[in-house]
Design a protein that fits this description.
- The complex is a heterodimer of chains A (155) and B (213).
- Chain A contains 5 helices and 10 strands, in the order βααββαβββαββββα.
- Chain A has 155 residues and is of the alpha+beta class.
- Chain A has a 4-stranded antiparallel beta sheet with strand order 2-3-1-6, with helices on both faces. A 4-stranded antiparallel beta sheet of chain A has the order 7-8-9-10. Chain A has a two-stranded antiparallel sheet with strand order 4-5.
- In chain B, 41% of the residues lie in helices and 18% in strands.
- In chain B, strands 1, 2, 3, 4, 5, 6, 7 and 8 form an 8-stranded mixed beta sheet that branches.
- In chain B, α1 links the parallel β1 and β2.
- Chain B is globular and about 40 Å long.
- The chains are: A alpha+beta (155), B alpha/beta (213).
- Chains A and B meet through α3, β6 and β10 of A and α1, α5 and α7 of B.
């Protein structure tokens, strides 16, 4: 008989990483397996059913949401890019979670603006709430800074 | 609900400014953070508590830091060392938190130091960063070490704190995530929430009952 499923909505930070669903599946599977072992990860039956730049929906067996959420907390990078997956909601249907996404989506990834600090050139992404993610443009180093608009004005 | 992230490293120690740390941790459910290398300030009900971290395994360095922090508004955090060092620093007035016990030997924190910690109201920090970043045998060793400390905590009731040790926005953890990660080492949810609220009690401990009037 088919097992009952639950769907976990997770928010992806930072917004401009835009990981593929396959990459998300591999890192989440690795996190679950290294934390809980092969036997429990087989029981959780994880699958990534939806993903965009800000949210992803992960399926698991009913009763295993707590284990999945704890494993999501241990995800730290995707494709050598620092990332965090924070569980936001749990539901029995994908439809309910997609309605939730529409309510709390922050908007599309803004276009990068050029920012010059000293002699260095950065790409700045301005998000709502005064948040600014700054990524250095360069071949040798790609420094990443998380700032606010007030910090930019003071520089 | 009072919830404090016991140690974060804003710029220049990390890649995130203190203002950005405040914005992010507020969204994650916290009402205060201990920011290493920063002075304390408050905005719209959110407190940034200044923190001083002593990394050197020398008692003299800890005494100097405690004297510099004598105003009592900041938090003094000390990296643990061997058994003798831990015994010495627990008795220094002004030391609030001892961290990184998972990196020390097994006998560096025994039942005697646990009792002294409870008597002197010095908290032991459970650093959640190794649970997130490590894999395999190192994470297993860390979990086992923390479980030993939790066992002593249940017996001697010294205070615990939980910290993310985040140097970046992506390393910050929400209250719910910290409670879930704490459950890996045997901390039940009520105890985890109590640990998240412990910092306030360390800075301003309750004194003995006074009769007024």
């Amino acid at each position: 008989m088919r097992d009952k499923r639950r769907y976990v909505l997770a928010r992806i930070t930072p917004l401009w990483v835009c990981p593929e669903t396959k990459s998300l599946y591999l890192v989440v599977q690795e996190a679950i397996t290294s934390l809980w072992g092969d036997a429990m990860s087989a029981g959780i039956q994880m699958a990534v059913v939806y993903g965009d730049n800000e949210f992803c929906i992960i399926r698991c067996r009913r009763g295993c949401e707590g284990w999945l959420e704890t494993a999501l907390s241990t995800v730290s990078c995707v494709n050598d890019q620092g990332i965090s997956l924070r569980s936001y909601a749990v539901s029995g249907t994908i439809h309910a979670l997609k309605r939730r996404i529409e309510k709390c989506r922050k908007g599309p990834v803004p276009d990068a603006r050029e920012l010059i600090i000293g002699e260095r050139i950065f790409e700045a992404y301005y998000f709502p709430g005064q948040k600014v993610d700054v990524l250095e443009k360069g071949f040798k180093s790609r420094e990443l800074l998380f700032l606010t608009e007030t910090d930019i004005e003071e520089m | 609900m009072i919830a404090t992230d016991a140690t974060v490293f804003p710029s220049p120690l990390g890649n995130t400014s203190i203002r950005r740390m405040v914005l992010e941790t507020r969204e994650l459910g916290f009402d205060s953070i201990v920011a290493i290398g920063q002075t304390g300030w408050e905005i719209d009900g959110f407190s940034v508590i200044g923190g001083t971290l002593v990394r050197e395994p020398q008692v003299k360095a800890v005494i100097n830091a405690a004297r510099a922090n004598s105003s009592g508004t900041g938090v003094l955090v000390v990296n643990a060392g061997n058994n003798g060092f831990n015994r010495a620093i627990i008795q220094i007035k002004g030391v609030h938190v001892i961290r990184h016990l998972h990196k020390t030997e097994k006998n560096s924190f025994d039942h005697i130091i646990a009792r002294m910690s409870a008597e002197n109201h010095v908290a032991i920090d459970i650093d959640l960063r190794p649970l997130v970043m490590s894999r395999g045998i190192w994470r297993q060793k860390t979990i086992q070490r923390y479980k030993d400390i939790i066992g002593l905590c249940e017996r001697f009731e010294f205070p615990l704190t939980l910290s993310s040790n985040a140097r970046s926005v992506v390393e910050l953890k929400s209250v719910r995530e910290m409670v879930n990660l704490a459950s890996l080492v045997g901390i039940a949810e009520p105890d985890a929430r109590e640990a998240l609220a412990a910092i306030r009690g360390l800075i301003a401990p309750c004194g003995p009952v006074q009769v007024v009037g």
